[in-house]
Write a structure and sequence with these properties.
Elements: H1 5-31, E1 41-47, E2 51-54, E3 62-65, E4 69-76, H2 80-114, H3 119-135, H4 140-172, H5 178-182, H6 185-208, H7 215-234, E5 238-241, E6 247-251, E7 254-258, E8 261-262, E9 264-273, E10 276-284, E11 289-291, H8 302-311, H9 317-340, E12 347-351, E13 357-359, E14 365-367, E15 379-381, H10 383-387, E16 395-397, H11 413-420, H12 441-481, H13 485-519
Antiparallel strand pairs: 1-4, 2-3, 5-6, 6-7, 7-8, 9-10, 10-11, 12-13, 12-16, 14-15
Helix pairs in contact: 1-13, 2-4, 2-7, 2-8, 2-12, 3-4, 3-11, 4-8, 4-9, 6-7, 9-12
Length: 521
C-alpha cells in the first residue's frame, strides 16, 4: 500500500525501473540517429489507479492516494497523413526516375544520330552527292557516290530503328516474343512488386504476433513502413490501419494485402496488340482475374513511366520511331517514284551500256522483309543499284516526243527532282489529319529534333520541380520521425533526474524503516 513505508519503497522502486527503461530507449534512439528508416521511439507513461486509504484525521476516514506510474508502451510516432503525402510524391518521383532514363537515351540519340552528327548530316551528304551528279550526269564515280550516300541514309535509319526497338524491347519486350517479355523491365518490375507485397503481408503477420508495444514491434513497423515507401515508388497505393497495428494495401480499388494475408497477385502479361503490348492484372489465389488491366488507370509512378517509355503514344521510344518510319517511308517512296515513274515532265531514264538513254524501271529502295510498307527498320538500298550504279536515272524526257534524242545524256531533268527532295514538300510528312501539303525532309527532321529537345526540356523541368517537392516531403518526415540529438539529451537529463529522485525517495523510506526497527528493539 502506498501509505506505508513499504508502499513508498515500492512506488520508488517502480519509478526507478520506469526511468531505467526510459534511459534505455533514449540510448537506443541516440545509437540509431543515423540509421536509415529508423523512427524515434518514446516511452508512454500512465498513472496507476488511486486506491482508498483510511485516514483517522479525515472526517470521511478515507483518502484517494496515487499508486505510482507504469509504462504503457514504447511507441514510434508516425503521421498517417504525412506518410500518405510522402508516398504520393514518391510515386511521382518513381515516374520521373524511369522517364529520366528514357530521356537520357533519347538525348543521346538526338545528339549522336539525329542532329548534325547523324541523320541530318547524312541527308546533307546525300543532297551534296546529288548536286555533284547533276553537274556531270555521265560520271560513274559520282553515281557510285550518289548510291553510297543513299545507302548511308537507309543504314542510318536502320541503326536508329534498331536502337529504339532495343529500348522498347528492354522496357516492355518485343510483341509476340514471350522470352523478351519475360526479361523486360515491366515484367521484372511487376514481379518484384508482387514479391514486396508478399514481404509486406509477412511483416504484418509478425507485427500481429507481437501485439505488445515495444522496440521489437516498432522495429518491425519501421521495416514495414520502409517497404511501403519502396512499393509506393512502383505503383500508387492506399493504406488503412487495423487495430492490431497491421495495414491493408489497396491498389486500384482492390484489397491486395489485408493484414497478414496477401489476397491478390499482381502480374504483367503480354497484351493483345502492338499498340497495347502490356496488361497488368490483379488475380486471386484461384486464378480468377479481378482486374484484367490496370495499366491505363495508373497515375504517375514507376510502372507508368516504364509503360510510357516503351509504348507511349505521346512521347517516348515508340513515338520517335513512328516519326522515323515516316521519314523512311517518304524518302524511299519519293526516291522510287523519281527513279521509276513518269510524270508530266517525262520519263526517268538512265544511261545504258551503249551510251544511250534507257527507260528506268529499277527502284532505288526495297524492303528487307519484302513487305510493301517502308519503315526505318526495313528500308534498304536495292542490291541492283549497288551492283550497277549506272542504273541511276539522271535524265527525264518524253520518249514519244518528236524531238526525243536518246543520246541526250547530259539531260539532268531527273536529277533536278532528286535535288528538290531537300526542300520539296511531301504529303507523307504532313503533320495534319487529313494530310495537308506536308513538309520537306529537312524541315520535318528539323521539326522532329526541335520537338524532341522541347519535350526533353519539359520533362527535365518537371522532374526538377518534383525533386524539390520530394526533398521537402522527406525533410518533413525526417523532422518528425528522425532522432533529434537536442531532444534526446533533454530527455536524458529529465529521466536521469527522475531516476535520482526516485532513488532518494527509496533511500529515505529505507532509512525510516531502519529507524523504526531500531526503536522496536
Amino acid at each position: 500500500m502506498g501509505s506505508t513505508l513499504n508502499g513508498i519503497m515500492n512506488i520508488a522502486q517502480q519509478s526507478i525501473n520506469n526511468n531505467q527503461i526510459a534511459l534505455n530507449v533514449v540510448s537506443n534512439n541516440i545509437a540509431n540517429m543515423n540509421t536509415t528508416n529508423y523512427t524515434r521511439q518514446q516511452v508512454e507513461f500512465a498513472a496507476l489507479p488511486a486506491y482508498d486509504c483510511f485516514n483517522w484525521c479525515s472526517s470521511s476516514g478515507k483518502l484517494k492516494i496515487g499508486h505510482g506510474a507504469e509504462i504503457t508502451g514504447i511507441t514510434n510516432k508516425r503521421s498517417q497523413w504525412l506518410d500518405n503525402y510522402f508516398r504520393g510524391q514518391n510515386a511521382a518521383n518513381g515516374y520521373y526516375n524511369q522517364i529520366g532514363g528514357m530521356t537520357s537515351n533519347i538525348e543521346n540519340l538526338l545528339n549522336n544520330e539525329l542532329s548534325s552528327n547523324g541523320l541530318e548530316k547524312t541527308l546533307s551528304d546525300f543532297f551534296a552527292a546529288s548536286q555533284a551528279l547533276s553537274g556531270d550526269p555521265t560520271n560513274n564515280a559520282y553515281k557510285i557516290a550518289f548510291v553510297n550516300a543513299a545507302q548511308n541514309v537507309s543504314d542510318m535509319l536502320n541503326n536508329m530503328s534498331k536502337t529504339l526497338n532495343g529500348y522498347i524491347e528492354t522496357s516492355v519486350g518485343e510483341f509476340g516474343d514471350p522470352d523478351s517479355f519475360n526479361s523486360s523491365l515491366i515484367k521484372t518490375s511487376v514481379d518484384g512488386l508482387d514479391e514486396k507485397l508478399a514481404q509486406l503481408a509477412e511483416l504484418n503477420g509478425q507485427i500481429s504476433s507481437n501485439p505488445n508495444s515495444g522496440s521489437a514491434s516498432n522495429d518491425l513497423k519501421d521495416k514495414r513502413d520502409a517497404l511501403l515507401d519502396e512499393i509506393s515508388a512502383i505503383i500508387p497505393l492506399t493504406t488503412t490501419t487495423n487495430s492490431n497495428g497491421t495495414v491493408n494495401v489497396i491498389i486500384d480499388g482492390q484489397t491486395v494485402v489485408k493484414g497478414g494475408d496477401k489476397k491478390l497477385t499482381i502480374q504483367a502479361v503480354q497484351g493483345d496488340d502492338e499498340d497495347h503490348p502490356v496488361k497488368i492484372q490483379l488475380v486471386d489465389d484461384e486464378g480468377n482475374i479481378k482486374k484484367d488491366d490496370i495499366s491505363d488507370s495508373l497515375d504517375n509512378c514507376g510502372l507508368s513511366g516504364i509503360l510510357q517509355a516503351g509504348s507511349g503514344e505521346s512521347f517516348g521510344y515508340k513515338s520517335i520511331l513512328s516519326d522515323l518510319d515516316k521519314i523512311a517511308s517518304a524518302f524511299a517512296e519519293e526516291m522510287n517514284r523519281i527513279q521509276t515513274q513518269a510524270d508530266a515532265n517525262g520519263t526517268p531514264m538512265y544511261i545504258g551500256p551503249d551510251g544511250t538513254l534507257v527507260e528506268s524501271t529499277t527502284p532505288m529502295f526495297v524492303t528487307k522483309d519484302g513487305s510493301g510498307n517502308f519503315t526505318a527498320g526495313n528500308i534498304t538500298i536495292n542490291q541492283a543499284m549497288i551492283d550497277d550504279p549506272t542504273l541511276v536515272a539522271t535524265a527525264r524526257l518524253d520518249p514519244n516526243a518528236a524531238d526525243f534524242d536518246d543520246r541526250a545524256v547530259g539531260n539532268t531533268g531527273n536529277m533536278d527532282q532528286f535535288n528538290n527532295l531537300a526542300s520539296g514538300k511531301l504529303t507523307a510528312l504532313s503533320i495534319t489529319d487529313p494530310p495537308g501539303e506536308g513538309m520537306s525532309l529537312t524541315d520535318f527532321l528539323s521539326s522532329l529534333i526541335s520537338k524532341i529537345g522541347s519535350e526533353i526540356d519539359s520533362i527535365n523541368n518537371a522532374a526538377n520541380a518534383q525533386d524539390s517537392v520530394m526533398q521537402q516531403a522527406t525533410s518533413q518526415r525526417d523532422a518528425l520521425y528522425g532522432v533529434d540529438l537536442n531532444e534526446e539529451l533533454a530527455d536524458l537529463i529529465r529521466y536521469q533526474r527522475s531516476y535520482e529522485a526516485s532513488a532518494r525517495v527509496f533511500n529515505a523510506a529505507n532509512e525510516l524503516m531502519q529507524l523504526i526497527t531500531q526503536l522496536g528493539q
